[in-house]
Amino acid sequence: MHSECEFLHPWCAPMHTRGMTVLSDEPSVDALLTFLAVARLGRHTAAADELRVNHSTVSRRIAGLEAALGGRVLIRTPGGWEVTELGRRAVAIAERIEDSMRELVEEAPGSAGELRGVVRVAAPDAFTATILAPAMAGLRRDHPNLAVELVAVTQRARQHRSGVDLEIVAGRPRVLRAYATPVFSYSLRLYATPAYLAAHGTPAQKADLARHPLVYYVESALQVDELDRALQELPPSPPSLRSTSVFAHIEATAAGAGIGLLPDFVADADPRLMRVLDGSWAHPLAYWAVARDEGRRNAAVARTLGAIAEAIAHRLDSR
After folding, report:
1. Strands 166-170 and 146-152, sheet pairing
2. Over residues 159-173, mean pLDDT
3. Strand partners, 289
4. Do 296 and 177 fall within a single domain?
5. How many distinct structural domains can be found in the chain?
6. Residue 297: which CATH number?
7. By the 8 A CB rule, do 292 and 159 touch?
8. Does residue 291 contact residue 231 with C-beta atoms inside 8 Å?
9. HEC sequence for 237-272
10. Is 235 helix (H, G, I), strand (E, B) or coil?
11. Per the domain annotation, does 111 fall within a domain?
């Protein structure tokens, strides 16, 4: 009888049969690779989407793997599925199988170095629109069989898996069992239109800001400590227009709603805006890339990080 893996991945059959007897209770390659997808993404549904199977197939393969290994490889946490000690050993085996399969595909004519599958990246909307989206467009030109999904969200790095391969967060993250590296430095600065300043006066010092509505994030929805610290450095604002979107901040500021607290790499490029208190106040920040250890060893995730770094370097060189 043929294994399920032999039907789905015919090239794997020799791995099961060469020099050994196939036993029904051995973990299948499909089960190991399915587990690897869950280990990287943290959710059965995300793994099912990536593997193009249904949720029940993922659950069945994981259950079969745990039965074959005689223990749990995943445990449920509030943030998603986490890998156990036994699971970490299984991840290492699954990654070696994945690497062998990738080498086989890459050795095929015309497919050297080609990336396949899905990579999911979560990042704040300003970074997504100005840096990430163009970088990923370039990556897909080189690897048309790679699907890229961008999730625009401003939040702190999650301690547990979040259904994405890579997170870009504002401020240095505090995460365990994860890889984190700074990728882009910028500052939050104050901006307004010339017409607004002519009508309401130009602040000469930070204390003068107390008379001006401050356009920024909704405080109750603000999840990032570094973004909140910037607000705490300024005087309390009178009633103002707030939003969870940085692009809403920009448009509201350009419409004369008040003084905007905006990222300089976006606002400096907007001809409608000018800096306020330039040279006397700014809040420096950095975007950090965070990848779980299992995800960082994924070739698509590694190349995504490389594409982001190249896009940022090109941006800095063109200034």
Report:
1. unpaired
2. 77
3. 168, 181
4. yes
5. 3
6. 3.40.190.10
7. no
8. no
9. CCCCCECCCHHHHHHHHHCCCCEEEEEHHHHCCCCC
10. coil
11. no
Contact 62, 81 (CB under 8 A): no
* pLDDT tier, 21 (very low <50, low <70, confident <90, very high otherwise): very low
Residues 94 and 239 in one domain: no
Amino acid at 235: P
Question: What does the pLDDT average to over 238-250?
Answer: 95
- What's the alpha-carbon Rg for the chain, to the nearest Å? 24
Cross-strand pairs, 189: 262
Task: Give 277-310 pLDDT, tens digit per residue.
Answer: 999 999 999 999 988 765 556 788 889 999 999 9
Tokens found for residue 163: 């259904």
pLDDT in tens, 56-66: 999 999 999 99
Q: Do 29 and 12 touch, CB atoms closer than 8 A?
A: yes
pLDDT 10s digits, 80-121: 788 888 988 888 888 788 777 766 655 555 555 678 778 889
Range of the structural domain that residue 36 is part of: 4-106
**100 and 8 part of one domain:** yes
**With left for phi above 0 and alpha for psi between -120 and 50, is residue 2 left, alpha or beta?**
beta
> Is residue 20 a contact partner of residue 11, using CB atoms and an 8 Å limit?
no
* Higher local confidence (pLDDT), 1 or 174: 174
Pair of tokens at residue 183: 């990728």
Instruction: Scan for tokens 């793997």, then name that residue.
Output: 65
Facing residues of 180 across strands? 290
Place of tokens 């869950």: 38
pLDDT at 14 over 50: no
